[in-house]
Design brief:
Elements lengths: L2 E5 L4 H12 L3 E6 L7 E4 L4 E2 L9 E4 L11 H25 L5 E7 L11 E2 L9 H14 L7 E7 L1 E3 L4 H11 L15 E3 H13 L5 E5 L7 H11 L11 H8 L4 H4 L3 E2 L2 H5 L9 H9 L1
Protein name: TIGR01777 family protein
InterPro entries: DUF1731 (IPR013549), Epimerase_deHydtase (IPR001509), NAD(P)-bd_dom_sf (IPR036291), SDR39U1 (IPR010099)
Pfam families: DUF1731, Epimerase
Length: 296
């Protein structure tokens, strides 16, 4: 059975993916900045990855990255960059030394690859990156991954929408407000919210891993397109609550969140057609069923 090394294995997606792979009898190794038993130590500042992590290694899945939901100070922007791109480069240099025959490298990326703005256009994987902070961040993130192709390694990038989980992330933050009947659309409420159930996201990673003909970029988002207002009302209905408060004005969010407010005030649809055409089937293609599964 294949051996898979995961960066970010202690994060929201990493934990779920690790458990799913182990249930399928994969050998899973976890990179960690903590020196603990059963974990493989790595540290970007020390330019170090435990060489033992690369022994008889088949696949690397790169999920590490600081969350984008923190305020984007100059220092935090650097952390967002280094935790994604610099760590990928560190993995590449160590793979050249210790596992030059690596078969597969799969990296997380973001649905913000196409830029953070609102339009009626639905973006597919052949569209260029957006010329803004997140668009350029995702481009550099993916370019760092494609360096592995020089080793003969198959590379895939997973452009991930907002991940829905009852454990953490956007949904976890919205549920307490909704429970108190304080749910409200943000800004105009017309911005699209690309989303995906965490089980489907884990399924996409495993699908790409197990189908060796798949490479390049894949949008990881549910087929149903909803805007912020529709998302808020569906969440409230699922929780048997109301969502009739006025929209939260954009200027307030801009004051509170700064530049990062763009990810909640703007958004466009992305298409999952490419992954669907590879015979991947979503368990939760509609928001209503996804929320019911996670909440009820």
């Amino acid at each position: 059975m294949k051996t898979v090394l995961i960066s970010g294995a202690t994060g929201l997606v990493g934990k779920k993916l690790k458990a799913a792979l182990e249930a399928k009898n994969y050998t899973v190794r976890s990179l960690s900045r903590k020196k603990e038993k059963d974990l493989f130590y790595w540290n970007l500042q020390e330019n170090y990855v435990d060489p033992k992590a690369f022994e008889n290694l088949n696949t690397i899945i790169h999920l590490a990255g600081a969350p984008i939901s923190e305020k984007w100070t100059k220092e935090y922007k650097k952390e967002l960059y280094d935790s994604r791109i610099k760590t990928a480069e560190l993995l590449f240099e160590n793979t050249k030394k210790y596992a030059p025959d690596l078969k597969t490298f799969i990296t997380s990326s973001g649905a913000n690859y196409y830029g953070t703005f609102t339009t009626d256009k639905i973006f597919s994987e052949n569209e260029p990156n957006g010329n803004d902070f997140l668009g350029n961040l995702c481009l550099d993130w993916e370019n760092a991954a494609f360096k592995f192709e020089s080793l003969g390694t198959r590379v895939a990038t997973v452009r991930t929408a907002a991940v829905l989980s009852d454990k953490d992330g956007m949904l976890k933050k919205l549920m307490p407000l909704t429970k108190l009947n304080l749910a409200s659309p943000l800004g105009s409420g017309k911005q699209i919210v690309p989303w995906i159930h965490i089980d489907d996201l884990v399924g996409i990673y495993i699908h790409i891993l197990e189908n060796e003909n798949l490479n390049g970029a894949f949008n990881a988002c549910a087929p149903e397109i909803v805007n912020n207002s529709q998302f808020t009302k569906t969440l409230a209905k699922t929780m048997s609550k109301s969502a009739f408060l006025p929209d939260v004005p954009s200027f307030i969010l801009k004051i509170i969140l700064g530049e990062m407010s763009s990810i909640v005030l703007k958004g466009s649809a992305v298409s999952p057609e490419k992954i669907q055409n590879s015979r991947f089937k979503f368990q939760f293609p509609e928001l209503n069923s996804a929320l019911k599964n996670l909440i009820q």
